[in-house]
């Protein structure tokens, strides 16, 4: 599952 860079930048905790 790849997450968009914008999504990761807006929700860095979500990737944790």
What is the overall shape?
flat
Helical region count?
Answer: 2
Profile the largest sheet: none
Number of strands: 0
What is the first-to-last residue Cα distance? 14 Å
Structural notes for this entry:
By secondary structure, the protein is mainly alpha-helical. Helix content is 62%, strand content 0%. It is built from 2 helices and no strands. The longest helix has 6 residues, at 5-10. The radius of gyration is 7 Å and the shape is flat. The mean pLDDT is 66.
Task: Write a concise keyword list for the protein shown above.
16 residues, mainly alpha, flat
Set down the secondary structure blueprint.
Layout: H1 5-10, H2 12-15
Offer a concise description of the structure.
The protein is mainly α and 16 residues long. It is built from two helices and no strands.
